[in-house]
Amino acid sequence: MPRLLILYTGGTIGMRPSPAGYVPGEGFAERLETQLAAHGGEALPTYRLVEMAPAIDSANLEPQAWNRLVEALARHWADHDGMVILHGTDTLAYTASALSFMLGALDKPVVLTGAQIPLGQPRSDAPGNLALAMQAAAHSAAPREVCLAFHDRLLRGNRARKVDSLAMAAFDSPNAPWLGQAGIELQLDTTAALPAGQPDFTAARFEDDRVALLHCHPGLSRRLVASLLEDPTLQGLVLVSYGTGNPPELSGELAAHLARATARGVAIVNVTQCHRSGVRQGAYASGGALNAAGVIAGQDLTPEAALTKLQVLLGRGLRGATLRQAMATALRGEMSLPAAG
Ligand code: ASP
Asked: What pLDDT is stored for residue 288 in this prediction?
């Protein structure tokens, strides 16, 4: 019987109601055991639970937590066949993306999950999500990559997005096929599997001032854009533009600021605000100016994947042409590159 590691980080799955709303609760190990026992847990793989302290609401997640997760995975990797991470849903897609870039190729599955309703509450989706994550992590044909299991779907972690704040089907990967789907049986799609390898457990040096995300909107302030792009600590920017990758031109001021920033060595990646498909930088003159300004076309990267990829690569010391090259390359299946020609 495969043995799993379960890392508990907090989130709704383990929260308790309080007069102020849901808060991270204590005594998770006991509740997990009781609830799994009540939901056919004897048929699930055996596990060892490690609680990350303190349990948090994932809205308070800081990138440093990814180093702590990688460290915990490294410590327990050899003794387990698959890893499950319990996490709040709000930033689950960020953590799944960040871990995919930090760990690189894997020889065992890492499956993240959470819940919309806490374990033990009426109609909780936690037992189902947990069982799916545990079965996927223990499956001999499971993808050797960072995945997200939620509401009968197994998704590539760095393609996943929280697409619904209230529904149980809270996650999807709009630009990538699901890696698996659970009906009565768990069906895995092994055709898109990434090559397996040995994980990299190296820590990254995260610094919040290095990276920002600029979401374009009508009325974008020239002054605020200038202050962001001229900030000397900025080293990476995700530009979240309209449609096929078009930002407002601001009478040429935006492209000029972007060009000055890229000339200083800032890596700028352009992704779309659209839920599906990606950028075609240059299909319109407004987007074409970005090519001239040295902005990297982020193809169909999600904003979460673009941001965390920049954070991890900068945190691992990549700069200049090497960083730009890595950002334009699919490292862990995070983007579809356009067909040649
Ligand atoms: N705020 C919670 C969290 O992300 C939401 C959840 O887990 O569903 O920790």
From this structure: 84
User: Regarding beta strands 186-188 and 23-24, do their DSSP bridges make them parallel or antiparallel, or are they unpaired?
Assistant: unpaired
Give the integer Cα–Cα distance in Å for 250 and 252: 5
Residue count (the chain): 341
3-state secondary structure of 48: strand
pLDDT in tens, 109-157: 999 999 999 999 999 999 999 999 999 999 999 999 999 999 999 999 9
> pTM of the full predicted structure?
0.97
Report residue 297 as tokens.
């076309």
Q: How far is CA 319 from CA 164, 325, 333, in A?
A: 36, 10, 22
Question: Which 3 state secondary structure label does DSSP give 128?
Answer: helix
Do the strands 180-182 and 153-156 form a parallel or antiparallel pair, or are they unpaired? antiparallel
Could you give all domains of the chain from N- to C-terminal order, each with its CATH number? 3-192 (3.40.50.1170), 211-327 (3.40.50.40)
12 lines ligand 1 (CB under 6 A): yes
24 in ligand 1 pocket by Cβ < 6 Å? no
